[in-house]
Amino acid sequence: MGSHRRAMERRQFLKGTLGAASLVALAGCDNLTQSSWFPSILNRAEKLTERVQRAVTPTNALAKEYGEADISKVFPSNGNTDPGTEAYAEHVAKNFSEWAMEVGGLVQTPMSWSLAALKELPSRAQVTRHDCVEGWSAIGKWTGVPLGDLMHMVQPLPNAKFAVFYCADVDDDGVAYYESMALVDCYHPQTILAYDLNGNPLDVPHGAPLRLRFERQLGYKHAKYVMRIELVETLAGIGGGKGGYWEDQGYEWYAGI
Ligand SMILES: Nc1nc2c(c(=O)[nH]1)N[C@H]1C(S)=C(S)[C@@H](COP(=O)(O)O)O[C@H]1N2
Ligand SMILES: [Mo]
């Protein structure tokens, strides 16, 4: 996570001293990116609030989907690339045959699925672009189970407002990665728990055995190594209280792009 934190610190420093225009220029000479979308995601991620974006974009608007020919030759891996715990290593050794994904909290029927059981449910495949705030993007084909289908099975209670995703990885200080989204976004057709990347089972660097795809949001929202989902009424009291690992360190919770 080191480089991510440094990128964020540098970004905040630059924001404070130089303003957005020079930040964009610097990002270019810094080789952060040469592509034209990067300045726009920087601006939009930091200025568009959830309320504004929901007002201008229908909740179910789809992120752009690409063709198979557009798939990037290399899809980088970022952040934690191996949870590195003993428990996780055991799952890897057993090819995740004993992995279970739980959905609980404010639901009528808490449920748990093995990886095999999830793979038997109807799936969705989508070729989308992943945008990381560190300045890279990549196009990949993700296959997985629509989160909305799981929600219909567990039946959220009326007071459930957010879904929290708990991951298997912890950082050097022992802080666990987690993320969250509004319950309404769980039903977005492109919100899936992916188990395949480009037609192959997810490898460890990309979040095996299960990672969230939350298209229309920046990369850090796409939680890898998802073990458990909890529906809650408020994000207060969970982790640092800001709704995610990076959010607790200053990133926007609503990372709409
Ligand atoms: N559990 C977990 N999920 C995570 C991260 C992480 O470190 N741990 N990094 C995030 C960031 S910053 C990005 S850009 C993407 C990277 O996904 P990839 O490694 O498949 O490219 O995962 C996101 N989800
Ligand atoms: Mo990222």
Give helix and strand order, one letter per element, not per position: HHHHEEHEEHEEHEEEE
CATH superfamily of the largest domain: Oxidoreductase, molybdopterin-binding domain
Helix content range of the residues, please?
25-40%
Give the structural class.
alpha+beta
Radius of gyration, in angstroms, nearest whole number:
18 Å
What is the name of the CATH topology of the largest domain?
Sulfite Oxidase, Chain A, domain 2
Number of helices: 7
**Cofactors, ions and other ligands in the entry:** ligand MTE, molybdenum atom
How many domains would you count in the coordinates? 2
Going by CATH, the architecture of the largest domain would be: Alpha-Beta Complex
The portion of residues forming beta strands comes to: 25-35%
Residue runs with pLDDT of under 50 for 5 or more positions: 13-40
CATH hierarchy class name of the largest domain = Alpha Beta
Number of strands: 10
- Main β-sheet description: 5 strands, mixed
